[in-house]
UniProtKB/TrEMBL annotation:
GO molecular function: DNA-3-methyladenine glycosylase activity; metal ion binding
Keywords assigned by UniProt, alphabetized: Glycosidase, Hydrolase, Metal-binding, Zinc
Organismal lineage: Bacteria, Pseudomonadati, Pseudomonadota, Gammaproteobacteria, Oceanospirillales
Top-level taxonomic group: Bacteria
Biological processes, Gene Ontology terms: base-excision repair
PANTHER family: DNA-3-METHYLADENINE GLYCOSYLASE 1 (PTHR30037), DNA-3-METHYLADENINE GLYCOSYLASE I (PTHR30037:SF4)
Name of the protein: DNA-3-methyladenine glycosylase I
EC number: 3.2.2.20
Enzyme category, top tier: hydrolase
Binding of Zn(2+), residues: 5, 18
Length: 188
């Protein structure tokens, strides 16, 4: 089985994502929300399809501004469902809008989406999955795993021998604080 580190380098879309974003810690809530929406939209499709449509997603979802997407109403939903630039799946569109409202509630309760993630970190993938399924819509095992790997909460985005891995580690992803062990106490 090939690893993303084998497939991405040099590719016009996969390469920049692999080299500059994948696995690096994310602190901005709108960027975290973007990653969640993109992972949800990848379900059943290739990551390349999502990357090709990323600019259109950015435009359609108001730059992934959580507050703006949370305020989307029926006219916005209708607009998104006919936008050929994005993935026009009603369940995915509904999940994105609903999840923006959830992120807003997490921001009110925890100060930020990132603070909510930090509050629950570390935990094994299965526990993250349970938490995400209780909290968000359209979040299965692959979506949750990729979201958490892509934002630095779970290890595995890069192989140890990938040149990008050293840069990811230097950026201090949350998983590295526990030595890659989600069961470890980050304060010990």
């Amino acid at each position: 089985m090939s690893h993303y580190c084998d497939l991405a380098p040099g590719h016009p879309l996969h390469g920049p994502y692999h080299d500059q974003e994948y696995g690096f810690p994310v602190s901005d809530d709108d960027t975290l929300f973007e990653r969640l929406v993109l992972e949800i939209n990848q379900a059943g499709l290739s990551w390349l399809t999502v990357l090709k449509k990323r600019d259109a997603f950015h435009e359609a979802f108001a730059g992934f501004a959580v507050a703006r997407v949370a305020s989307f109403g029926e006219p916005d939903r209708d607009r998104l469902l006919v936008d050929a630039g994005i993935i026009r799946n009603r369940r995915k569109v509904d999940a994105a809008i609903h999840n923006a409202g959830v992120v807003q509630a997490l921001q009110a309760d925890y100060g930020s989406f990132r603070a909510w993630l930090e509050h629950h970190h570390p935990r094994p993938h299965a526990d993250w999955l349970t938490l995400f399924r209780r909290t968000f819509r359209f979040t299965g095992p692959e979506i949750v795993g990729e979201f958490l790997m892509s934002t630095g909460y779970l290890p595995g985005a890069h192989r140890d021998d990938c040149p990008v891995q050293a840069r990811v580690l230097a950026a201090g992803p949350p998983w590295a604080r526990t030595g890659g062990n989600p069961d470890a106490d980050p304060n010990s």
